Amino acid sequence: MYSKRIWSCMLLMGLFFLAAVSGGCGGSSSSGSGSGVPGNGEPYTGDNTVSYEALAGTWIGSNGSGSGQNDKYLPGQKIAVKVESIEYTIRNINYSEETKTGTAQLSLAEVITNERFNVNTNRNWLGGFDTFEMTNTGKNSWTFSREYSDGEDHITLTLQSETTGRIRNVGFMLNEDDHSDRTDFDFTCNVTKQ
């Protein structure tokens, strides 16, 4: 029972991330590069109509959607998830307009649910910031990427204005004791800067 709960939490957590990154709350969107993980590490070479400086601040959203997949426990199945709430704070942006790359610090909180398995995931790093690689991956879109010992996050924020946008989070989580237990996620949510 205990291991089933741990797995359920891992699945929901993974699904939660999928919902936040894949697009806007209540709808889908495309990332800047339009393929695989947002950006694929290649800078966008076009012109932005909103400055990267507008990225700084706290972005809040709810009612997002996405999916998650764990081939160890549910081979070949993508499970739908709902983003109940997300909060991302971006600060200390060190970005070059010339190279379209840089770094920034991110802190996040996410609540993801899965009705099929009645699982809730709550990932909360508020107050703790990590440094992410930053790349301009599309018009008014920047992807923040970070690798961990137990997974990855690729968070794309596409600005519609200086105070509205869409977040997509694509990544995966590993069970550090069993790397065959991998949960991939992709979720999106519309956000507003507070």
Cα gyration radius (Å): 16 Å
Give me the strand/helix succession. Answer: HEEEEEEEEEE
Shape: globular
**Count the helices. How many?**
1
Mean pLDDT: 82
Quaternary structure type: single chain
Biggest pleated-sheet summary: 10 strands, antiparallel
Annotation, overall tally of beta strands? 10
C-alpha end-to-end distance: 41 Å
**What is the strand content?**
over 45%
The share of residues in helices is 10-25%
Spans of at least 5 consecutive residues with low confidence: 1-36
Structural class: mainly beta
Briefly say what this structure is.
With 194 residues, this protein is mainly beta. The protein is 10% helix and 54% strand.
Structure write-up:
The protein has 194 residues and is mainly beta. 10% of the residues lie in helices and 54% in strands. It contains one helix and ten strands; from the N terminus they run αββββββββββ. The chain has one helix at 2-21; strands spanning 57-61, 64-70, 79-96, 101-114, 119-124, 130-138, 141-148, 151-159, 164-175, 178-193. Strands 1, 2, 3, 4, 5, 6, 7, 8, 9 and 10 form a ten-stranded antiparallel β-sheet that branches. A hairpin with a 4-residue loop joins β8 and β9. The longest helix has 20 residues, at 2-21. The radius of gyration is 16 Å and the shape is globular. Residues 1-36 have low confidence and may be disordered.
